Every structure is written in structure tokens, then in C-alpha cells.
């Protein structure tokens, strides 16, 4: 949870870029962490549940209309994410990775795990993902997302 991440960052005095002491940068991190619950998390999880889990649990195929509606909801918040939070910066809080970027990329990998490559036609978002992956290390990034990326193969 967000509360646990913030607690851990404070308790273990992680490097400042994860949860910046600079008030403006911290406000950007806090703003994203508050916004993402009903936006990126809500819409990304909904697509994953609709496309992967519900058909698996019910044995019923997904209606194309339902998938289209859920995908469009996600596309709206992805546009907001790019325009409001990424803008022209390398990361959400500026030039360095933060907890906001980690939370964002984890949520965005759920739709990818459902077979919807939301990075494919969004160069700004794809470049941001590559920067996040490089900042945490490619091997760790792949290892952390291995389960979700294989979910559609269940």
C-alpha cells in the first residue's frame, strides 16, 4: 500500500529521490499517489479483471463492447497521466525516479499482462517506462513483473 511505502521510505531513510525532501517534488509525488487510486489503478485493474480474470472465472467470453468501453476508460486516464504528470519531464517528480514512478509502472503493467500493450502507440509513455526500467535495473524490473506478464497464459 501507499502508506507502507511511505513508512518504509521514512523509516529506512532511503535516498532522497524516492520520496523527496524538497516540498515541491514531494507534493508532485503525493499528488500522483493520491490521484492514481481511482484513475490508473482503477482503470488498469478493471481492464485486467475484465479481460483476464472474469472470463477465466466465469468461462464466458468477453463481449467486444465491454472490452472497448473499459479500454477507452483506461485511455482517458493514460492521456491525463502523460499530460499532467509526465509533461516533458523524465519522471513524475522531475529528473529522478520516485515512489510515484514505481507505483505508476506497476499499475500500468497489469493491462500489459492482460495483452493490452498501452506503451505501443504512446512514445512518451514508452520512453518513461524505459527510464524507470533502467533506473531500477532491467533484470529486477523483469523479475518483478514476471507473474503479471504471464497471467494471460493461465
Q: In a nutshell, what does this entry contain?
A:
The chain is mainly alpha-helical and 154 residues long. The chain is 71% helix and 0% strand.
Q: What is the element string, with H for helices and E for strands? A: HHHHHHH
Shape: globular
Query: Helix/strand-derived class?
Result: mainly alpha
At CATH level 2, the architecture is: Up-down Bundle
Oligomer: single chain
**Which regions have little confidence, pLDDT < 50, spanning 5+ residues?**
none
Task: Determine the strand fraction and express it as a percent band.
Answer: under 5%
Helix content: over 70%
**Can you count the helices?**
7
Which fold name corresponds to the CATH topology? Glutathione S-transferase Yfyf (Class Pi), Chain A, domain 2
Terminal CA distance reads 26 Å
Strand segment tally: 0
The biggest beta sheet is recorded as: none
Mean pLDDT: 94
Provide the domain count: 1
CATH hierarchy, class: Mainly Alpha
Radius of gyration: 16 Å
